[in-house]
Description:
The chain is an alpha/beta fold. It is built from ten helices and 17 strands. It has helices at residues 2-13, 25-31, 61-66, 82-90, 104-113, 123-130, 135-153, 165-178, 241-260, 267-280; strands at residues 18-21, 43-47, 53-57, 72-76, 95-98, 118-121, 183-191, 212-220, 229-235, 292-294, 301-305, 318-321, 324-327, 331-334, 337-341, 346-348, 357-359.
Amino acid sequence: MERLERARRLAGEAxxxxxxxxxxxxxxxxxxxxxxPLERLTCLVVPADGQPFLVAPTLEVSAAEAAGVAVExxxxxxxxxxxxxxxxxxxxxxxxxxxxxxxASRVLALRDRLPEAEQVLAGPVLTQLRMRKDAAEIEALRExxxxxDRVHARMGEWLRAGRTEREVGxxxxxxIIDEGHEHVDFVIVGSGPNGASxxxxxxxxVIETGDPVVVDIGGTTPAGYCSDSTRxxxxxxxxxxxxAEAYDVLHEAQAAQRAYARPGVSAESVxxxxxxxxxxxxxxxxxxxxxxxxxxxxxxxxxYIVEGNDLVLxxxxxxxxxxxxxxxxxFGARIEDIAVCTDDGLEVLNRxxxxxxxxx
Length: 360
Ligand code: ZN
Ligand code: ZN
Ligand code: ZN
């Protein structure tokens, strides 16, 4: 309820009459209810003045209650119009804020039922809350990081020459669950030239001796928090000399960013610290993405660690530090840790070896 109260207050300050939040990370954050995104409308309404309520289909009421939803549940039956019900309960509103991921069909239905209300995004308000993690959330992120670290520590069981990326990926996915996640969010096994595509997942390419392999993996724990860590493995050896050179530079850049990031510095300056090192070594054109993203109940959320984001980091902000160097057709490398700003520094949550790990 404390989160709802803070959301209500921030909405009021932003001149918003009500926040409308459908199933997704925002709803779970505010109510604890990880509702499935189904075709029947479930929507939390947080009026700036007045009590919050959850509009939900009758058949979902027991699930909402079991999840501990602490606001009044306004149930609608199969043949009711839930949008009319919501609009009637809310009353006149000049400005309503919709969660950033609300389906377009709902946005338009709400426009029909509340024609006087200006629609704005709730993201700016909810981000203010979700970006600043409390102690329990940081502990949940620590547990997620430890779980993915245990998977990386076992990589030698699966990653070797003669196997396909897909085979290795299946084993990793099973281990992500076995080591303490509730579900697997992504498994990237980028071997040899496939490492040059940052969001390559897996393919039927057979891993060869001497291949560098980018392994970027993450899942969500039962507490609802995400892990995300990238490490680099060399299958047999020796590596392409150009790769070895790039990897050293990348390692130095990522270490410099970890040493630099702390409360009081801007998100973009963290990006710059690493980019300058990579550019000075001649690899600037090959660092083709931002340094990182916030993380919490979603793998990618605010704050983004990118040029142009002058947001000043604060204690409790959690984000990835993941510079990369991608040589098209040849190799790629990325080192990724999740870190949280403490009161006066940075706690890096992932702890596995960041140097190139030689396997098999
Ligand atoms: Zn990514
Ligand atoms: Zn990431
Ligand atoms: Zn990642």
